[in-house]
Amino acid sequence: MGTAVDFYFDFSSPYSYFASxxxxxxxxxxxxxxxWHPILLGPMFKLMGSAPLMQVPLKGAYAEKDFARTAQLFNxxxxxxxxxPIASVAAARASLYLLQHRPDTARLLIHRLFKAxxxxxxxxxxxxxxxxxxxxxxxxxxQLAAVLADDQLKAALKDAVAAAxxxxxxxxPFIIIDDEPFWGFDRFEHIRMWAAxx
Amino acid sequence: MGTAVDFYFDFSSPYSYFASxxxxxxxxxxxxxxxWHPILLGPMFKLMGSAPLMQVPLKGAYAEKDFARTAQLFNxxxxxxxxxPIASVAAARASLYLLQHRPDTARLLIHRLFKAxxxxxxxxxxxxxxxxxxxxxxxxxxQLAAVLADDQLKAALKDAVAAAxxxxxxxxPFIIIDDEPFWGFDRFEHIRMWAAxx
Lengths: 198, 198
Prior knowledge:
The structure is a homodimer. The first copy, chain A, is of the alpha+beta class.
């Protein structure tokens, strides 16, 4: 088995959601595990001087169409949530904490958070919504609420974003395999072609 | 046979070049013709407040890697030219003129200009290089030089860019089929899937 596939995602990115539904089967095809990396696009866009996608003239309208069409073409349940985009920091922190302490539960939480936002329309920018999703899979809401307020966890997410940037990650979803970088759900087929050439 | 596929491209865009090598076979699969539309990304980026790709931190370096890898994965001859990117206005004007007057020759010229830049490393931002490529396929260089200086042709290209923007075209390559917009060489597979659903 090769090294794990590094999968960087932001809960506020529909293409990250689409990718999250397929990354495990893709990694399995390649005989690899998945390392999940919650990140925040906000600080990255700031560094790059980029505007958030939906605010770019023409591109925003196209993106909205492309989200829906991509979901349809790949049979992924999806409805563009309101509000969109959102600050995904609470969801990212909760995921990071669990990845550090209970990796198997973390994967389940990540899938449930994506579903909560893109299928059930739950505004997961609200911490109480994140806690409700966590409670649904048997996690202790009170304990997680305390964890989310912890400065060490806040710093850990900042460090994770900085570490991602240092590896050249500037968007989401972003996949790195054996140091080879791939940006976007639309690179999944390229990953397969690239792996076949190796 | 359905309506033609509208194919918008900028000679300065490697993904436009990649797409130009496959758009005719894709259209044929769909039982359609191709309408070629040379455009200029410069005025579009200005309107959208976007920086040119290669100037965006991290994204520029990734793009350079992705150009080379995409070319390799799809078996397309390619070497990132120097200088890159370039002002592609002379090439775009020559293509537009021929599309208006000799469409079959125009297609050949477009393919040759892409090849001149991305395979042979010819700097087609220089008008004399564009004329040399045109002469290679039997066009009259002196006549074309006169045409390229014509205010009517300059205005026609500006109008073409404005018309593209009015249809929501904000990047290249950009494909519109039956009013359905697709942005990027990486949407070719989506086009096939979308057409299969219709």
